[in-house]
Amino acid sequence: MADGGGWRPPRPCEAYRAEWKLCRSAGHFLHHYYVHGERPTCEQWRRDLMSCRDWEERRSADAQRSLCESERARVQAAQKHALVWTPRQSPPTDWHLPLLQEEKDE
User: Cellular location of this protein (predicted)?
Assistant: First the structure.
């Protein structure tokens, strides 16, 4: 893997650039600040973009290692959040029945 023979970055460099640009946008800033209460950190996307470009230009082993570690961390961060609901195996038995009217309507 370190020799870089047939290795390609997990995403095209344009995808890293698009993610970095989105992260720096005003809409993303407002959404992230509203949801998390802090400013978004876009530095990782910039580092990934620079590593991807470095890989394409020089086939740098450090750039390859950096991209692999970053993607691995991103996948682990996404997997650590458990589902809120457990997925159903089948629909409820009474799914086809009409909904009950509210008692206040009567």
Answer: Synaptic cleft
